[in-house]
Amino acid sequence: MLSDFKDMAQEFYNDSFYTKTDIASFVGLTLLTGDDFKEITGDDYVAQTN
């Protein structure tokens, strides 16, 4: 199921519906991994600190 979410997130990112910030938020919610972030955006994931 999460691979379906990853595929959808990739498509929405490619179509500019999602930003890198959106994709990073999905990593924070554990819907995607840091590796997924890199695969989708091309950038390394850096965890947000509060």
Concise structural overview:
This protein is mostly helical. The protein has three helices and no strands. Helix content is 60%, strand content 0%.
Q: What does this protein look like?
A:
The protein has 50 residues and is mostly helical. The protein is 60% helix and 0% strand. It has helices at 2-14, 20-28, 34-41. 12% of the residues are buried.
Helix content: 55-70%
Total of DSSP H or I helical runs spanning 4+ residues: 3
Using the CA coordinates, give the radius of gyration: 10 Å
Task: Specify the structural class.
Answer: mainly alpha
* Total beta-strand segments: 0
The major beta sheet can be summarized as: none
Distance from first to last alpha carbon: 30 Å
Q: What's the average pLDDT?
A: 93
Order of helices and strands: HHH
Which consecutive residue ranges, at least 5 long each, have pLDDT under 50? none
Question: Could you outline the blueprint of secondary structure elements for this entry?
Answer:
Elements lengths: L1 H13 L5 H9 L5 H8 L9
Core attributes:
single chain; mainly alpha; 3 helices
